[in-house]
Design brief:
Length: 127
Amino acid sequence: MVPNDLGYTAEHEWVRMTASGLAEFGITDFAQAALGDIVYVSLPTVGDSLSAGRTCGEVESTKSVSDIYAPVDGVVTERNEGLEQAPETVNSDPYGAGWLVRVTMSGSESPQGLLTAAEYESLIKAS
């Protein structure tokens, strides 16, 4: 399932613009399924500056540890603190309650250089 209303990265992050103008992001359903049972999530701190394409955290599963890459440039406004106690939420609801970080973007009002849902589906089918 790849929601049509989101932007995607080749590193398997998704991005949505919130009603308040923040860029909210997380990992895709494909990524969480590949990782397996998520047991720990390391997120950037509120106030941290993020650069698109750079590592900003980690997701640890029973199988491996995977880097989280920032899909946009900006400053961390909010992090999903609920994941500290319930990291498995990323598995059960990756596009909803399993969001990771909300960012005030620098520059453009909309994320640039992201894949569409169709492009992301083609990418994961080729994997």
